[in-house]
Amino acid sequence: MEFTLLFLAGAIVMLAAWRGSRALALGLYAAVMVACAATYLHHATDPLKLSF
Amino acid sequence: MTQSRAITLNAISLYAVALVLAAAFAAQLVLHELPCPLCLLQRILFAMLAIGPILNTRFGPRPSHYALSLLAAVAGAVASTRQVLLHIMPGDAGYGSALLGYHYYTWALIGFIAAIVLLAAVLLFDRQFEDDGAALPPTGGLFAHAAVWLVIALTSLNVISTLLECGFGACADNPTVYELLKRFS
């Protein structure tokens, strides 16, 4: 569900960038990138099997 | 590089993003391979690469617009690097099938790094940030308009596709069926 919302938010940012104000697009972009980072941290839980 | 050339170049970059999103869709539909959560995140970040070019087309080229795409490219490179590292050990078959010897997340990493390099290269041309009395219409003409709407349409299709795949719950780590279709079949 979170990915559906992220794609939806991404499409809304694009529409804001194309039709809305620049400030609105920048604000929405920042919100989506924060949400992407949070989603990444939520899913990146598997340990990496690396040894150096 | 003049402002009008830069806007044309930005429109071409939007077609490149559209091509990546369409190729991911094609792999999903033709090979029946559903994208994993990290794969979906990489797709979203490819879509976010388009924000800079859309703003450049609408408001004219600005370094800050390129910076937005650079941030998305770096975030995408981080996500795809993690997925590459998850499958880097000898004997690990990787996630999904390979295309020309590389899995999709490896191609994604190459794509994000290429985007970082190209964005840095485009930023070297200062003349694009000066108004040249645009030979092109203010928002780049039909070529650029079509590119913007194509990327928006493909991102919207991903909203539907992801809703079908994940349903209203959390996406499966290793999805094999469309959860929403399964629920209603």
Shape of chain A: elongated
The string of secondary-structure elements of chain A, in order, is HH
Q: How large is the share of residues in beta strands of chain B?
A: under 5%
Largest sheet of chain A: none
Through-space gap between termini of chain B: 55 Å
Count of discrete alpha- or pi-helical segments spanning 4 or more residues of chain A: 2
Point out poorly predicted stretches of chain A.
Answer: none
Strand content of chain A: under 5%
Structural class designation of chain B: mainly alpha
Kindly state the percentage of residues in helix of chain A: over 70%
Tally of contiguous helical segments of chain B? 7
The helical percent of chain B reads: 55-70%
What is the overall shape of chain B?
globular
Number of strands of chain B: 2
Quick one: biggest sheet of chain B?
2 strands, antiparallel
In total, the number of strands of chain A is: 0
In angstroms, what separates the terminal alpha carbons of chain A? 37 Å
Explain what this protein looks like in three dimensions.
The complex is a heterodimer of chains A (52) and B (185). With 52 residues, chain A is mostly helical. Chain A has 2 helices and no strands. In chain A, α1 packs antiparallel against α2. With 185 residues, chain B is mostly helical. Helix content of chain B is 67%, strand content 2%. Chain B is built from 7 helices and 2 strands; from the N terminus they run ααααββααα. Chain B has a two-stranded antiparallel ribbon. In chain B, β1 and β2 form a beta hairpin. In chain B, α4 runs antiparallel to α5.
Give descriptors for this structure:
heterodimer, A: 52 residues, mainly alpha, 2 helices, elongated, B: mainly alpha, two-stranded antiparallel ribbon, 7 helices, 2 strands
Please summarize what this structure is.
The complex is a heterodimer of chains A (52) and B (185). Chain A has helices spanning 2-19, 22-43.
Chart the SSEs and their pairings:
The complex is a heterodimer of chains A (about 50) and B (about 180).
Chain A: H1 2-19, H2 22-43
Chain B: H1 3-30, H2 37-48, H3 51-59, H4 63-86, E1 98-99, E2 102-103, H5 104-122, H6 141-166, H7 179-184
Antiparallel strand pairs in B: 1-2
